[in-house]
Queue: 2 jobs
Job 1
Amino acid sequence: MRRCWLALALLGLAMATPAQPASPQVQLNGMLGSRAALLIIDGEPRTLEVGATAKGVRLVALEDGRAVVETAGRRQTLQLGAAPARIVSSTEQQRYIVMASGPDGHYTTPGTINGQATSFLIDTGATSVALSQAEAERLGLRFVNGKRVVTQTANGIVPAYVIDLASIRIGDVEVRNVSAIVIPARMPHVLLGNSFLNRFQMRRENDVMTLELRY
């Protein structure tokens, strides 16, 4: 009888616990200098000045094509023109990367390589992370000390360098010791290939991709 009462009490507690509201999905769509930004919050355009709040999202700062936003005490950096990002709780953010596809169907996101800011594009067909020599130089990577190889590109066979990146970080998720290839090609983004993606369990629901860290 006591076990039955306890089970009913626990069931009642579970039913009384309110569901957590869905975290907002936010995109930086435009900037008015360093004073205000056009944000798309859950599909609705809002113009916010620094310090203002709309739909639970506060604009904290603006600079160099990026905006820092905050909701429920959680901050995230958005890059101008990148796909919408979902701001999740701190416990989720440590293991999950959530992003929505852009109008072209691609998944792009800001992040860092070895602590330096860059822009990524998910490429499930790439064997490893790939970046241009120009971007590698901007990030201060000493790729010429890496293993010299040749690789096939749209322009034919070209020389390239295989290196290990100390870290790749997106939001609060950081992966260390990631193999990458540096090639002499013009690339608007760093391609996040399988040397990074294999560390995650990938799920797609409509236009939203979730990467759950496996190890």
Note: The helical segments are 2-16, 90-93, 133-138, 194-197.
Job 2
Amino acid sequence: MNRGIYPGSFDPMTNGHLDIITRAAKIVDELIVAVLLNPKKGTGLLSVEERIAVMKEATKHLENVKIDSFSGLLVDFAHQKQARVIIRGLRNGSDFEQEMNMAQINSSLLKGLETVFLMTAPEHAYMSSTAVREIVCFGGEYEAFVPPAVADKLKINKMRGR
């Protein structure tokens, strides 16, 4: 089985992420979207559990997509899941430089692991999770930038004062 992993913090998942997931799901037999548990980043806008829940909802129409989480090295997670491909989305040239370095490190740590870069669709190239977090924190309109399940969860959290 050709299994791929699309890793990230996804805080929150954007329409750009969903576009990459949808396209990547067409190139592998199974795609694991892996939410990174990164203690350096603090709690984030959504908890890891909330991110997983909204991502499952947003991708439920994609039968070969699984949502999971991991901590530690991506190569260890890839080895554990017997994945041969890492999927990375690129918005611009600076993304490429950073991702190329990581791809080279990962392939040196786990032989046979390939990284596939997918260019973000032009309509999503300017938006990032960081920008969405800032828009949310300052009370702006973010709904056009995230899947409906994410927007609903953010609204619920806002009503709860989180």
Note: The radius of gyration is 15 Å.
